[in-house]
UniProtKB/TrEMBL annotation:
CDD domains assigned: RING-H2_Pirh2-like
Descriptive protein name: Uncharacterized protein
Region (Disordered), start-end ranges: 269-288
Protein's pathway: Protein modification; protein ubiquitination
A Pfam family assignment: zinc_ribbon_6
Domain RING-type: 165-208
Entry-linked Gene3D superfamilies: 2.20.28.10, Zinc/RING finger domain, C3HC4 (zinc finger)
Predominant localisation class: nucleus
Boundaries of every CTCHY-type domain copy: 100-164
Keywords in alphabetical order: Metal-binding, Nucleus, Ubl conjugation pathway, Zinc, Zinc-finger
Superkingdom per UniProt: Eukaryota
Location in or out of the cell: Nucleus
InterPro entries the UniProt entry points to: RCHY1_zinc-ribbon, Znf_CHY, Znf_CHY_sf, Znf_CTCHY, Znf_CTCHY_sf, Znf_RING, Znf_RING/FYVE/PHD
Length: 288
């Protein structure tokens, strides 16, 4: 289907900007600024971008049997937002010559007019990333791009971002939201991590390791335990604990507040056997 310019539309006046820059910043959706729409190869419908397609086709009101994501590598046709000409995927419209995206990746079939994101294509990831290629490196074991600041210090986790966010369950590898890497190497949306901290949760949802310096909290717990002696019946009661931070097991004196790892001195532990189950460790209250 080929369509020409709409009747009465004056695209270029004397002294005006170049035809390829017409409409810059005035077209697109909530996800991207771009001057084209896409025809989804899966359902043959037109959308502003693949995220618009996926949100529409995976909405709660859609029959679960019909829900699906767009196979973006199979995208073959786009529609110019200015002259509405449908055509093969390319950066400049074959009819009116407008640039349909200042940033264009032929491999990802991706358009974006907002080049302030400093997009680049990572061959190893197989997708486009943002933030400037010089600021990132690709970790082959983790299977994703990380900030160069982390190059010599991050903990490698096999396919670290090839899974869902442990909080909101959105697939992390191609998410448009900011991602952060925890000390343990697991990844999570930054906004989800902030929400966890808002609710005084400071352990990784995947492996339960502490993801921030908790030394101040452990000192407060030392003081609380020292000032809260146990009844005589529990004075010599011993229990076994597993430390979530270092992975060691220890036999320690039972206390109703918390149990301290004998190796790394962390209170991020859980009782595994021996005697009554302890109450909540009071870590949340101590962080407040």
């Amino acid at each position: 289907m080929e369509r020409g310019l709409e009747p009465g539309m004056a695209y270029l006046a004397v002294g005006a900007i170049s035809s390829k820059d017409l409409g810059f910043g005035h077209y697109g959706c909530s996800h991207y600024r771009r001057r084209c729409k896409i025809r989804a190869p899966c359902c043959d419908e037109i959308f502003d971008c693949r995220h618009c397609h996926n949100e529409s086709k995976n909405a709660m009101e859609v029959d679960p049997r019909d829900r699906h994501d767009i196979p973006r590598q199979e995208l073959k046709r786009v529609i110019c937002s200015l002259c509405h000409t449908e055509q093969d995927v390319q950066q400049f419209c074959v009819h009116c010559g407008v640039c349909m995206g200042k940033y264009f990746c032929s491999e990802c079939k991706f358009f974006d007019d907002d080049v302030s994101k400093r997009q680049y294509h990572c061959n190893e990831c197989g997708i486009c990333r943002t933030g400037g290629e010089e600021n990132f490196f690709h970790c082959n074991r983790c299977g994703c791009c990380y900030s160069t600041v982390m190059k010599d210090s991050h903990n490698c986790v096999e396919k670290a971002m090839h899974h869902n966010c442990p909080v909101c369950f959105e697939f992390l590898f191609d998410t448009t939201k900011d991602i952060t890497v925890l000390r343990c190497g697991h990844t999570i949306h930054l906004e989800c991590l902030n929400e966890m901290e808002h609710h005084s949760q400071y352990t990784c949802p995947v492996c339960s390791k502490s993801y921030r310096d908790m030394s101040r909290v452990w000192k407060k717990l030392d003081q609380e335990i020292a000032s809260t002696p146990m009844p005589d019946i529990y004075q010599n009661k011993m229990v076994w604990i597993l430390c979530n931070d270092c992975g060691e097991t220890s036999e320690v004196n039972f206390h109703i507040l918390a149990h301290k790892c004998l190796k790394c001195k962390s209170y991020n532990t859980k009782q595994t056997r021996g005697g009554p189950t302890s109450c909540s460790s009071r870590i949340e209250e101590t962080m407040s």
